[in-house]
Specification:
Elements (H helix, E strand, L loop, with lengths): L2 H18 L11 E2 L13 E10 L2 E10 L10 E5 L8 H8 L2 E4 L10 E4 L10 E4 L9 E2 L9 H18 L8 E6 L2 H18 L7 E7 L5 H6 L1 H5 L7 H11 L10 H11 L30 H6 L12 H9 L2 H6 L6
Helix pairs in contact: 3-4, 7-8
């Protein structure tokens, strides 16, 4: 075979091999997570974590992300970024308590040892890749180099989040063509729609990479302070938390406005808060947490539940309750937990 023909054959073979080879990950080296705090076993899919820097040289803000890829088909399945509420709550909160691939295993009434983590059969990662972001800087593992950058507002957060997304997709290029959604809860009801609008605006203006944005989803969103604050009384009455007489008096004196009020409504509202005192308003069927995870006997805000003490003999602390945020702190704050998740040490 002539040298020219042989060279052509080698080039064709090399080209075909390139077509067959798996795509090279665009993420920075060392981004893959192989162990998760509290979890024993093989991760249900590929996980990655690290930082995306937004801002500029004088005011760099390093936003932490964690990506759990889809357990079904990550090359085609949607990408759904989760932005937690609060404002200023870490994305790991929702990641463990509702939508993520893991859940904390509460095998005891009170957690005294390190929390254990198991897989969540209802995880969104069953059909989507799920990145979370700690936003703004100062939340979770995210941090800023300039102390002034810890003072922010919603408009600045949206700018940083778009900057984060554009750089994140530049790093994870294999997801650029996947359908993309933004999701959040609670205070994110303020942020997510504006971020969606920003993405659409930048897509129209950009001649380069465009985010394949398809929509957004909100759970229990904060959208209107009047609606939310005025809902407390109409919610409490049908739940049986206040008396018929007090409710009728509130309706008569407050005219549907139950906050930022004056007399005589104010006096009735004081009675309202006295009647719901000691009730766990986050979940009225659960007793309020009296102790911090059973680790100490330090009293928390509420001290009701003597009935539960009489019927519950499972621990010296009496009440069946969990301080979930403290469980997250025990999992993620120690040095080893930060190492596993590629987070900056304290």
């Amino acid at each position: 075979m002539e040298a020219g023909a042989l060279l052509l054959l080698l080039l064709v073979v090399a080209f075909l091999l390139c077509l067959c080879a798996p795509p090279v990950r665009a993420a920075a080296g060392g981004a893959e997570v192989t162990e998760f705090p509290g979890f024993h076993g093989e991760l249900p899919s590929k996980h990655y974590a690290g930082y995306i820097t937004v801002g500029h040289e004088q005011q760099n803000r390093h936003l932490y992300y964690y990506l759990a890829t889809s357990e079904r088909n990550p090359s085609l399945d949607p990408v759904v970024i989760w932005i937690n509420g609060g404002p200023a709550c870490s994305g790991f909160s929702a990641f463990h308590h509702s939508i993520g691939p893991f859940k904390i295993e509460y095998s005891q009434v009170h957690i005294k040892d390190n929390p254990l983590v198991t897989t969540n059969p209802y995880s969104w990662t069953k059909m989507a890749s799920l990145p979370l972001v700690d936003s703004p800087a100062g939340v979770g593992y995210s941090y800023a180099e300039n102390e002034d950058d810890y003072i922010t507002n919603d408009s600045k957060r949206v700018v940083d989040l778009y900057d984060f997304l554009s750089k994140w997709f530049a790093e994870y290029t294999e997801f650029q063509s996947n359908p993309f959604y933004v999701a959040g809860c609670s205070y994110s009801g303020v942020l997510v729609p504006v971020l969606a609008q920003e993405i659409l605006k930048r897509n129209e203006e950009s001649e380069g990479m465009k985010i394949n944005f398809k929509g957004y989803s909100l759970c229990n969103p904060a959208v209107d302070i009047d609606i939310e604050n005025n809902a407390h009384v109409p919610y409490a009455f049908p739940m049986g938390l206040i008396s018929d007489e007090l409710f009728e008096s509130l309706v008569t004196t407050c005219n549907g406005k139950y906050w930022n009020i004056s007399s005589p409504c104010q006096g009735n509202m004081e009675q309202f808060y006295m009647q719901i005192k000691g009730i766990n308003m986050e979940h009225i069927l659960c007793p309020p947490c009296r102790y911090k995870m059973g680790i100490t006997k330090e009293f928390m805000e509420y001290d009701s539940g003597q009935m539960f003490e009489r019927i519950s003999k499972t621990s010296e602390h009496g009440l069946e309750c969990h301080d979930q945020e403290e469980a997250l702190q025990k999992l993620f704050d120690p040095k080893l937990g930060r190492e596993k998740l590629h987070a900056k040490q304290r």
